[in-house]
Specification:
The structure is a homodimer. Chain A is an alpha/beta fold. The first copy, chain A, contains eleven helices and 18 strands. In chain A, strands 3, 4, 5, 8, 9, 17 and 18 form a seven-stranded mixed sheet that branches. Chain A has a six-stranded parallel sheet with strand order 12-11-10-13-14-16, with helices on both faces. Chain A has a two-stranded antiparallel sheet with strand order 1-2. In chain A, helix 5 crosses helix 6. At the A-B interface, helix 5, strand 15, helix 9, strand 16 and helix 10 of A face helix 5, strand 15, helix 9, strand 16 and helix 10 of B.
């Protein structure tokens, strides 16, 4: 088969051996696979490792032994059943007939993730192997491109679920409208939560956020999303909370969906008192904050990661329900040979989600 | 009267004019006044301001106009009614007879705090003026020394109330057993919450924490409080949360009661997954964290400040109930002339709460 093999941090299309499904596994054809920020970080880490700066969890996951299987990334996939491995029961075969579109949660074991390990090749190849007991059927009529959004949209469901322990109502402020911020916006909109204020430097990304359901979109280069709160009915308490009750004083929920140094502190400075920040973006570098400022405004921060299996399944259900125009997140769809172009283009913040369709070269 | 006047960052006992109660106010004799970390910061800020480094909110609050009233700090006080100002009704006079012990929430207006403003002199003086409508009666039989703990203990009530939105059960880890950490320990113990693991470098502070109800005390120089969790019945989930349910996976609640740079990051590193940090200590300096680490462990942080009026009143009620031996927090009681000694001694971390009794010089 043909695959976009990760070689020294670049995606190089090569012919490699077809994968062979083991016991309880199925062989599938990858129909659509999204590329995400974590993939870019992983490829960067591989490049750094090549240069001897291998001090990265991702790099060590992906390094593998010399002469080992090729590394094929891709964990946001929708695939089509092709064949079944040995030991798959008749009932399972009947349940997963050839041609059936499926998704699968890429987290398959402790620290084991499809598309981040040589032993679990991902969706940037014509064929891949999945565990039959982890398959989710894509409902009739849902195109593979939309089903491939199950994984990134699940991240939004998780972030909103984490925050809704604290705040049932909005306004909600989404900082950054890359795929993560758009997934959060989609999750809020699907649940009927709002109003949503979304902020991004890119006009095209802001447009997608509006299409997904953001009531207000803001260019942070010229405006603060927090200046929009008042027009949406949110007013900061006029008297100090130290003079009043502790109840009913929650500020807005702010989703940090960027993950670069300096952003958390800038939000601590600009968020109203009692705001709750859900940190969905992952900033791997050291970052400086002023904790005393957070005390003075009684702020809180919650750091989330990925999603739970039930949220992954819920994500596919939501796509099928079609309550939110999640297809607007897809800004390009390309063939396998354009995988490296996709990676390069994603560094351009005008793109949101680029899908690779490996069956067409 | 005699007062310990804050002069250039030092407490100097002087004779100053007796304060005169205004309309709706009472004249009280300060019976006991605790000195806290914020007082030390304020005095430091005054010293810095003297040297031209006046870039501090506290310093600007305390600077005042030249020739203005002397600055008298002290916001953790218990006082005794002496006289009533003009316009105080007979009913109010009857309610607050001479000799009655009272406490009062020092937060008296937007940004206005007794003991942090020249217009609101505090408890480090023989006499002071309080608003009649803000008085709380000290219940019969409660000594003034214990009632003077109302303010610092209210900080603990607030911190525990903030955290209990998320975690009804322990274990609870208290980092730092200064007055704040001890107040948190006392609040948890009063509410029957536990088990409590308390950590401090000082053996005498650890002993007080144990007296207040900590099940385990730890010297962080040699042991990690998190190593004690298992013995108290807390086990981190053995499988990754990414493979399981989002429910029922709260880690312990950790109260950060120190407020120095570096501590938050060290806790992010050592806390189990899903821990919730309540940041009670106030670190005014820039601090470096690694946000991505917090994502990978799905940690959360909540920053709290002071207390609400209802919590202040609850604090005095709890002292009267006597369920917890809060008197053990008081490590020294001195006369007014020893105020500067008290400030100097508090920089020695073996002390917890030092009370000044201004009626005895």
């Amino acid at each position: 088969m043909r695959a976009a093999v990760a070689l020294g941090g670049d995606l190089v299309v090569q012919s490699v051996a077809d994968p062979v499904p083991g016991r309880g596994q199925v062989l599938v054809a990858s129909r659509a696979n999204g590329i995400c920020g974590s993939d870019l970080h992983a490829l960067d880490a591989m490049k750094a490792a090549e240069q001897g700066n291998g001090d990265s969890m991702v790099a060590s996951m992906m390094r593998g032994e010399a002469g080992a299987a090729p590394l094929i990334i891709g964990h946001e996939f929708c695939a089509e059943i092709v064949d079944h491995g040995p030991g798959v029961s008749v009932a399972t075969k009947k349940r997963w007939p050839a041609g059936q579109l499926v998704c699968s949660n890429p987290f398959v074991g402790q620290g084991e993730l499809v598309g981040y390990s040589r032993s679990r090749p991902g969706g940037l190849a014509q064929l891949m192997v999945l565990d039959a007991n982890r398959l989710l059927a894509v409902p009739e009529g849902v195109p593979a491109q939309l089903a491939a959004l199950t994984e990134p949209l699940a991240v939004g469901i998780r972030a909103v679920a984490a925050a809704s322990r604290l705040a049932k109502r909005g306004p909600f402020v989404v900082i950054g409208c890359g795929p993560i911020g758009l997934a959060v916006t989609a999750a809020l909109a699907h649940e009927g939560r709002g109003p949503i204020i979304a902020s991004d430097l890119s006009p095209s990304r802001r447009q997608i956020a509006a299409q997904l359901g953001a009531a207000v979109v803001v260019d942070p280069a010229t405006d603060s999303p927090f200046d929009e709160l008042e027009s949406l009915g949110f007013a900061e308490a006029s008297t100090s909370p130290l003079l009043g009750s502790a109840k009913g004083q929650l500020g807005p929920v702010v989703f940090e969906c960027v993950g670069v140094p300096g952003l958390i502190q800038s939000l601590l400075e600009s968020m109203p008192r009692h705001s709750h920040m859900v940190v969905v973006g992952v900033c791997g570098q050291p970052d400086t904050i002023r904790p005393g400022l957070a005390n003075s405004k009684e702020l809180s921060m919650e750091f989330v990661l990925a999603y739970r299996p039930a949220e992954f399944a819920e994500s596919l259900r939501r796509i099928a329900q079609g309550r939110v125009d999640v297809g607007s997140i897809i800004t390009a769809t390309v063939g396998l040979t354009e995988s490296q172009w996709a990676v390069d283009s994603l560094r351009n913040a005008e793109q949101a989600k680029i899908l690779v369709e490996p069956y067409r070269e």
